[in-house]
Amino acid sequence: SEITFGQTFLCMSLDRGELDAVGLQQMLTRPYVYHKTGLFTKAYSTVAAVYPNLAEVLAGHWEKNPGTRTQLLNVGKATQTFTALAKNKEWANDLWGNLVAPHYRSGFIVESWMRGQALGPYCPPDHPNVIVDARTLYVDDGSQNLTWKETQDHAKWGVALDSSYVLCVGDLNRMESQRNRGGGAVCFSDRKLAYGLYRTIM
Predict the structure, then answer these.
(1) Which of 70, 69, 92, 80 minimizes the C-alpha distance to 10?
(2) Which one, of 85, 100, 112, 126, lies nearest residue 175 by Cα?
(3) Could you give the CA distance from residue 188 to residue 145 in angstroms, rounded to a whole number?
(4) Which positions ≥6 away from 137 have C-beta within 8 Å?
(5) Phi/psi class of residue 132: alpha, beta or left (left: φ > 0; alpha: ψ in -120 to 50)?
């Protein structure tokens, strides 16, 4: 149910060029494709003529050498820049501690689901960037105070610990098993939203 398995979603409007750039990320993350419509129902060559990277994804042509990719996406009329970071399962490292934090050269506090062998905090000198797991969260909606533990939702987001106001929405938890999954995060700087998320952490 959404009470136990509620996720965090980030919706973006992309133009054609940016949409195909997402395909580059997906060749690493290996998404399950449950439905196709319009052009994407056509033959591989037809799709590839317009969206070569997405055609590779739909054909299941994955990048199997261990690796990561960072892609800038310019979104919307105001041209908000998003950074998409992705890894494949062969890379076998923590998305947050080994990819997101080093990219931004910042520590992060991460809220994710840890029903299993948690990776635990990353601290110097073993790790150059601090990664702290949010364990308990709190929201005051004006009429009631809501408190819950990270095991009571399925969200995956992080907020930078520096003054950049960077926040990321991802699809991997900070658990040992998630090292061996493809996945990624989309990050951007937004002072109001970053502060709002940070304030939910107890």
Answers:
(1) 80
(2) 112
(3) 28
(4) 111, 147, 148, 149, 150, 153, 200, 201, 202
(5) beta
Each residue of 31-50: pLDDT tens digit? 999 999 999 999 999 999 99
Question: By three-state DSSP, how is residue 83 classified?
Answer: strand
pTM exceeds 0.85:
yes
Distance CA 123, CA 129 (A): 7
Quickly count helices (H) and strands (E) in the chain.
7, 9
- DSSP one-letter string for 34-52: ----GGGGS-HHHHHHH-H
Strand partners, 131: 108, 122
Report pLDDT digits (tens) over 80-126: 889 999 999 999 999 999 999 999 999 999 999 887 789 999 999 99
